[in-house]
Amino acid sequence: ITMTLEEIRGQENAMEHVDRVQSAGAALQELLVAAKKQEYLTVGVYESAKVMNVDPDSVAFCVLATDEEYECDIALQIHFTLIQAFCFDNDINVVRVNDIERLADLVSAGESGEPKDAHCILSPSANPWKDPALDKLSLFCEESRSVYDWVPTITLPER
């Protein structure tokens, strides 16, 4: 088997991308768990939209979640488009997660009743609350934007 330098670099870049996405997934899980413990999360499309409308400076990070079941939900996709535009206008990092069940488990574990709407989750930018995972995710988003991936998709680690 003979490979060109471009092919070798392409494989190396692909592996680096996989490592970056896995690392970002672990950081996102860490951030959500820490923010939930501090009661810093806003969960749900409408709840998130209210927070962003009232105080966009209080938001540090936005997670949009969907899966195949919701891809045809036009109303949800319109909300996502509006939320993304708002986040871009207010310098709020945005990522997508394709495993809504896993995300819902992370943000509503232990709560009784119906599972929460986990389609949109906001993490605060409260001044006293600094988390290394938030810094990792911010860097991941910045690196993604540098290659024109405006809303990168993150895969959460397996349970």
From TrEMBL:
Domain of life: Eukaryota
One GO-annotated biological process of the protein: cell differentiation
Keyword Zinc carried by entry: no
Record's keyword terms, sorted: Apoptosis, Developmental protein, Differentiation
GO cellular component, one term: nucleus
Residue intervals of the Ribosomal protein eL8/eL30/eS12/Gadd45 domain: 27-107
Similarity comment text for this entry: Belongs to the GADD45 family.
Free-text function comment from the UniProt entry: Involved in the regulation of growth and apoptosis. Mediates activation of stress-responsive MTK1/MEKK4 MAPKKK.
Record's subunit section: Undergoes concentration-dependent homodimerization, which is required for growth inhibititory activity and enhances interaction with PCNA. Interacts with GADD45GIP1. Interacts with PCNA.
Protein name in UniProt: Growth arrest and DNA damage-inducible protein GADD45 gamma
Biological source species: Cyclopterus lumpus
Native organism taxonomy: Eukaryota, Metazoa, Chordata, Craniata, Vertebrata
